[in-house]
Amino acid sequence: MTETPALDFGDDGLVPAVAQDADSGEVLMLAYASREAVERTRETGLAHYYSRSRDELWQKGGSSGHTQAVSEIRVDCDGDALLYLVEQTGGACHTGYRSCFYRTIDGEAVGEQVFDPDDVYE
Amino acid sequence: MTETPALDFGDDGLVPAVAQDADSGEVLMLAYASREAVERTRETGLAHYYSRSRDELWQKGGSSGHTQAVSEIRVDCDGDALLYLVEQTGGACHTGYRSCFYRTIDGEAVGEQVFDPDDVYE
């Protein structure tokens, strides 16, 4: 099959996008992508998202340097979710953990902290 | 850290929940969970979600038999996304693929088809 899947950006113009480490398989983060964010990601090879809180297009690592080089974008069956396969520089999470999913629902920290956020964010 | 993370179910009472194969690391699907869906998942050990289209609580595999045994639930840094680590029976996708993310954004099928949907769904 080579038909380009239709993307369903929904009422708010966004789809959830999951970033997964292309090598280790670790799920790094979940954010949202607009059509423009997807286009910029494809054009540049660097993960772009749309920030719902700041209401703006956003390049991951644009300020921290913790960019994501995207090797492949996958689309789910309904076309309303994306999977970015990435090579993560540094850590994905602003807390310094490699993955934003560093805690269990009971609050146990199970992720790996890879940087000190005080050194990266002012 | 053992403090239970606060969950932010947002305006619609839902958080996106990503299901990942606990062994292979394959990202299987993205759906949405209500507070009740999370509670039922924890009580039963089987993945529950909330269907936005059918507007109801839903046990994955309830009709198909393709259940997800959940070994761990992780929460992201902001408490507004979940990661279910699961043992997937059969395939996660109604199309017969093991993962709903079986296509690239260019439409190339890269996933593994593990069942014939005509045999499972009437």
TrEMBL record, chains A, B:
Family: Belongs to the PRA-CH family.
Cofactor requirement: Zn(2+); Mg(2+)
Job of this protein: Catalyzes the hydrolysis of the adenine ring of phosphoribosyl-AMP.
Catalytic reaction annotation: 1-(5-phospho-beta-D-ribosyl)-5'-AMP + H2O = 1-(5-phospho-beta-D-ribosyl)-5-[(5-phospho-beta-D-ribosylamino)methylideneamino]imidazole-4-carboxamide
GO process annotations (BP): L-histidine biosynthetic process
Record SUPFAM superfamilies: HisI-like
Compartments where found: Cytoplasm
Cofactor binding comment, as recorded: Binds 1 zinc ion per subunit. Binds 1 Mg(2+) ion per subunit.
Every Phosphoribosyl-AMP cyclohydrolase domain range: 29-102
Name recorded for this polypeptide: Phosphoribosyl-AMP cyclohydrolase
Cellular-component GO terms for this entry: cytoplasm
Gene from which this protein is expressed: hisI
Main location: cytoplasm
Binding site for Zn(2+): C77, C93, C100
Superkingdom of origin: Archaea
Keywords, in A-Z order: Amino-acid biosynthesis, Cytoplasm, Histidine biosynthesis, Hydrolase, Magnesium, Metal-binding, Zinc
